[in-house]
Amino acid sequence: MNHPVPPSRISCDLLVVGSGAGGLSTAITAKKHGLDVVVIEKEDVFGGTTAFSGGVLWIPGNPHAKKAGIQDSREAAVEYMKNETGAFYDAVAAEAFLDAGPEMVEFFERETAVKFVPTLYPDYHPTVPGGVDIGRSILAAPFDIRALGEHMGRLRPPLETITFIGMMFNSSNADLKHFFNATKSLKSFTYVARRLATHVKELALYRRGINVTSGNALAARLAKSCLDLGIPIYTRTGAKELALHDGRIVGALADGPDGNTVHITARRGVVLACGGFSHDVARIRKAYPHLQRGGEHLSPVPAGNTGDGARMAEQVGGVVEIRYPNASAWMPVSRVPLGKGRFGVFPHLLDRYKPGIIGVTRKGKRFCNESESYHDVGAAMIEACKDEKETAMWLVCDQATLSKYGLGYVKPAPMPVGKFLRNGYLIKGDTLAELARNAGIDAEGLEKTVAAYNQGAAGGHDLQFGRGTTAFNRYLADPENKPNPCVAPVGKGPYYAIKVVMGDLGTFDGIRTSVVGEVLDDTGAPIPGLFSVGNDRASVMGGNYPGAGITLGPIMTFGYITGRHIAGALETVQIPAIQIERKEMVRVA
């Protein structure tokens, strides 16, 4: 693996700290507008949380939707954001995002290696006024990472628990339909066999899959664009302290890969893009209610997201706020034993939507529509367990459902399940009562819950929570299951369960900034020369999750806005009630 070693002294116009979508989109935009940019990353690999993600961007009015003739309007998007963010609706930031989002997509597709394709994703709450059933979410196009050349090995691999022998799958991947049908369709079997053969060949030649999709593709495309522009990405180089001169941020000190200190002078300033604070134990203990009462939290985001940006901003007078009722993008997860003392974190992105799978608390009771978004189910888990020390649910299904769809990290038939029963990840019982005893669930509660659920499920109805009644519920379900793709009875035993706890996909609360990314002090004044993007910056969505890609869409859009502003290309933001004045930057030799 080729790790460029930074010199002990670096002089540039702009220093970007972090290599996810926020940092790299800012770096590329600033470079395209004439600035000399350097990116540093403390981990061995670049790509940040982006490389683990689904690679989806929520961009209302995007050019791909317009090209497809999908009817939408800016007014509808504003209405939807107002309804979704409630008391935290920020008109200036929201309208800046809606104005600049489509322009950002056009800029990156025209000027860089970043390319997108449309998706069929509905908004997560399509029945809310302003919501739509299709068009606002786009996806990074697949990418052959051999184009990264000698830097290919520095791309963060996809999350291990959502791959099969290193091959990527998630809710945006068309491969999934074929893999679920491989034992039932000759066409799907042939497709899967060809796909596996290609992947095995890639592993033999390159020790990893080279045709990447989703967030791995987006991270690779952004990195390729940086490298094409001559922007160095120094990995194993972690910022430890910001440099001040006459009250202005003018660079940073970093720990280099050889243990040396790297002195970086940045004439236009520093951009904090460190990925948020998902693994800052002290901060999340204050921010997450389930941790405050003693529960467990397992985040699948990179271990390096330890709140470095928040810490450095606070050290120079910046404000990190915990305002939102939901401080992070919640993700129900399970702990997967991987052997030799290792464990992984599995995000439950797909199984909850499948018919015949229900989620219950320790009392054996359902508490929500399992086919809502991961964030909504996570918020419901936190609320349902508010009087308990542990925040957890158990996903429950019968043998036929397990064989057809799998459950969590357990794959569908014909893949074996024995090792998961032996290591305790998968829990089994010949009867519901036995399953409950083995899982630590109230047996009477579980039996009553399944009986009540099955009354409606036999006819395709969820009498308690209305599962399957929205386009989003149905999007990740099983269209072949009639009449409701999300609902089927829990049938004959044996029965299975997996314990699910709380995790997150990244933080929503964060550094207080202006709309163009200036870090603000406790008086609301910008700290000269200091900016923040990505999950370090407080989310424009106000702690809610309106649709697929509402993290990466704003992240790349505000990275684009911030990069243009720093470069001086942005005179004003074209929305009412805000003017952005250009300021002369203090230039430091």
TrEMBL record:
Q: Which residues form a coiled coil?
A: none
User: Quick check: keyword Repeat in the entry?
Assistant: no
Per UniProt, the keywords (alphabetical) are: FAD, Flavoprotein, Oxidoreductase
* GO BP: any one term: steroid metabolic process
Q: Name one Pfam family in it.
A: FAD_binding_2
What InterPro entries does this protein map onto? FAD-dep_OxRdtase_2_FAD-bd, FAD-oxidoreductase_2, FAD/NAD-bd_sf, Succ_DH/fumarate_Rdtase_cat_sf
Q: Does the keyword Flavoprotein apply?
A: yes
**Please, which domain of life does this record's source organism belong to?**
Bacteria
Offer an example of a GO molecular function term for this protein. oxidoreductase activity
Listed cofactors: FAD
Please state what the protein is called. Answer: 3-oxosteroid 1-dehydrogenase
Source organism of this protein record = Thauera propionica
Taxonomically, what lineage is the organism?
Bacteria, Pseudomonadati, Pseudomonadota, Betaproteobacteria, Rhodocyclales
